[in-house]
Amino acid sequence: MPSYNIGHMKTFALKKEEVQREWFVIDVTDKVLGRVATKIADRIRGKDKPTYTPHTDGGDYVVVINAEKIKVTGSKYEDKKYYSHSLYPGGLKTKTFRELNETKPERIIEEAVKGMLPKNKLGKQMFKKLKVFSGAQHEHESQQPQLWEPKI
User: Fold this and answer.
1) Which of 35, 41, 69, 114 lies most in the core, judged by the most C-beta atoms within 10 Å?
2) Which of 60, 57, 75 is nearest to 16 (CA)?
3) Which strand (E) or helix (H) includes residue 95?
4) Is residue 133 included in any domain, yes or no?
5) Is residue 57, in this structure, part of any structural domain at all?
6) What tens digit of pLDDT does each residue of 72-113 get?
7) Pseudo-torsion of CA 59, 119, 95, 76, nearest 10°?
8) In a domain, 87, yes or no
9) Domains in the chain: how many in total?
């Protein structure tokens, strides 16, 4: 069989020391929950960068503001349910999207993004880079986050 000179290409693997993180702020007023959560999850994982490596956390920090103004389509406003359990028998609590949006609107976005991250230690580490706030004020001005308007 003839041997062909294919060349020597190296696969790029990002090392955690080489990661350069940036801070982004996104206003989710009147944006659809699932669509914006996908963009946020990709940014946190680093999938939007050419240096993406699946086994390394190469993503950026994302600050979400106006979490209480997120939108859902169809009848999800009344029908979508969120569950929590107290770990005691019969301790299952259920809240609708509307109820959760009135009490803890941050949790809606956190759960949507968390479900799109890996279910392992790396995913937990990535999730810590998500900062969600109801209202337009946030406590990360000192990081000088850039305004981010993804195409949705």
Assistant:
1) 41
2) 57
3) strand 92-96
4) yes
5) yes
6) 999 999 999 999 999 999 999 999 999 999 999 999 999 999
7) 70
8) no
9) 1
Kindly report the CA angle at 118 between 114 and 119, in degrees rounded to 5?
A: 85
Q: In this structure, is residue 4 part of a structural domain?
A: no
Q: pTM score, two decimals?
A: 0.90
Tell me the C-alpha distance between 91 and 112, whole Å.
23
Tokens representing 10 are 């190296």
Q: What angle do CA 126, 129, 131 make, to 5 degrees?
A: 135
CATH code at 118? Answer: 3.90.1180.10
- Which alpha helices (DSSP H) does the chain contain, by range? 33-45, 76-79, 97-103, 105-114, 121-127
Task: List the end-to-end C-alpha distance of the chain, in Å, as a whole number.
Answer: 52
Angle between helices 33-45 and 105-114 (to 10 degrees): 60
CA–CA–CA angle 9, 15, 21 (5° rounding): 120
User: In degrees, to the nearest 5, what angle opens at C-alpha 148 toward C-alphas 111 and 109?
Assistant: 10
Report the alpha-carbon distance of residue 31 to residue 92 in Å, rounded: 30
Q: Which residue has the tokens 């993180």?
A: 21
Q: What span, in angstroms and rounded, lies between the C-alpha atoms of 58 and 14?
A: 8
Task: Tell me which residue range forms the domain holding 111.
Answer: 20-68+102-147
Question: By C-alpha distance, which of 141, 132, 147 is closest to 101?
Answer: 132
